[in-house]
Amino acid sequence: MAAKITKDMLVSDVIKMNEKLVPIFFAHGLHCIGCVMAEHESLEEASEAHGLDVDSLVEDLNSYLEKGEY
User: Fold this and answer.
1) What does 5-59 look like in DSSP terms, one character per residue?
2) 6 occurs within a structural domain
């Protein structure tokens, strides 16, 4: 079973889990994947900073890990 992503995980840790998740971040409007804040911000904090729905992001990330598609 694939690891489950939660909104309290750091952006950088999620990307390290699977780099193929990056397009999902882009689709949700998170384009600063390589910025210094990715090392310190959780998915929830990054989503709040960009006015995005963290639950939708987490759902899509987990769906990709489970099904291998977005």
Assistant:
1) P-TTSBHHHHHHH-GGGHHHHHHTT---TTSGGGGT-BHHHHHHHTT--HHHHHH
2) no
The pLDDT score that the predictor gives to residue 68 is 81
Total domains, the chain: 1
Tens-place pLDDT, residues 30-67: 987 878 888 899 999 999 999 999 999 999 999 999 98
C-alpha 35/C-alpha 15 separation (Å) is 12
**Among 19, 11, 17, 15, CA closest to 46:** 11
Q: pTM higher than 0.85, yes or no?
A: yes
SS3 67: helix
